[in-house]
Amino acid sequence: MPSTSCPPKQAFSKRTNPASHGMLLTFPPRSPDFPITSIIPPMDRLHTLHFLWLFSAAPVLAGYPIWWSLALGQQYSSFGSQPILCGSIPGLVPKQVRFCRNYLEIMPSVAEGVKLGIQECQHQFRGRRWNCTTIHDSLAIFGPVLDKATRESAFVHAIASAGVAFAVTRSCAEGSTTICGCDSHHKGSSGEGWKWGGCSEDADYGVVVSREFADARENRLDARSAMNRHNNEAGRATILDHMHLKCKCHGLSGSCEVKTCWWSQPDFRAIGDHLKDKYDSASEMSVEKHRESRGWVETLRAKYSLFKPPTERDLVYYETSPNFCEPNPETGSFGTQGRSCNVTSHGIDGCDLLCCGRGHNTRTEKRKEKCHCVFHWCCYVSCQECVRIYDVHTCK
Hints:
This protein has 396 residues and is α+β, with helices and mostly antiparallel strands. The chain is 27% helix and 20% strand. It contains nine helices and 13 strands. The strands form five sheets. It has a four-stranded mixed beta sheet, with no helix packed on it. Strands 8-7-9 form a three-stranded mixed beta sheet. Strands 2-3 form a two-stranded antiparallel ribbon. Helix 4 crosses helix 8. The chain crosses the membrane at residues 51-70. Pfam families: wnt.
C-alpha cells in the first residue's frame, strides 16, 4: 500500500544541483579529454545500435544540433550486428563521436531522450501558432526555425537535454544497461522511521551523461553557444529539482509495519509543464563582446535592468520570434492556415489569435464512436456503434 506522506527530499538529500553550485558530485577523477570515462566502462566494439546504421550514408550538416534527428530513427533502441559508424551520424562533433564509439550501450537512451523531448514539445505547443512541427525528410528536423536564438530554440534545447538526462536515468534504474544502475548512496535506515529500499534513480548520473553529450558542441565563444549551454543546464536542473521520494508500506493488511522509500523522477509531463512556464517567462538578453586572453568572447546580459535578472533555472534568448502566422521558408514558419482552432477559447488556441485575424471555416464531421456500453458477468463489455456529428473549426 503506497504512502502519500513521504518526507520532502530536502530533509535527507545531500545532492548539490550542478546548475547553481557547480559540479560537486562524488565521481572518480575525470579524464581531461572525456570526463566520464572513469565511471562508464567501454562496451565491446562488436556491439552496435541498429538505428545508427540508418545514418551511415547521410551527410553531416551544420547549424543547430542535427544529431536530434536520431529521435526520428525507427530502430533507434535496438541492437544489431553491423560495424558501428558513429562518425557518419550527422552533426556529431569529435567528442560526441568518441562518446558514441566508447559507450554504445547508452546511445539508445540518448536517442530515446531526444524523442521524448520532441514529443513533449509537440504536446506543450499543440495549441500555439508554432506547434513544434518536425520535418521527417530532413535531418534538420525543425527546419530553419531554431537557427535563430529565440524562445522556441531555448525551449527545445532545454526539453531535449532534460529528455536525455531523464531517459538515461530511467534506463539505468530499469536495468536496461550494464554500465549503470540504481543510486547506491542511499542504504539502511533514514533515521525518520523508515528505511531506504527499492531502486533510487540516479538522476545525477543522467545529468552528467546529458551534459557530456549534449553540451559537447557548445564550446564556441559566441553568444549562441552561451545561450544553448545555459538553456541545456536549465532543462537538466528541472530534473534534479523535481526528484521526489516514493514510499511503500509493508505488513499484514497494509499495516505499514515497515516503510521503504526511494528517490524517483517525476512524470516527464511535469518537466514539460515546468519548462513551458519558463518559456512563457523567458528572459530577453543582449549580447556583449569583450576581449579575453583566448580571444573575443560574447556573453549575455539581461536586456532590461528593471526586470529581475534570470537565474540558472530560467530560459534565455536574444532574438525575436517571428509571428508564425504566414508560411515563410526563410524563418521555417508553416503558418496556421488549416490548423484546428477552439472557437470558444479566448486564449492563443482560440480561432481569433491562432488564425491571426484571418477568420476561420466551420465544417461538420461525422465520427463513429462506441456507445451504450454494457458490462456482462463475467467478464466482457459489449458496445454499440454510434455516429456523432461534430463542428470542426479551421483557420482560413
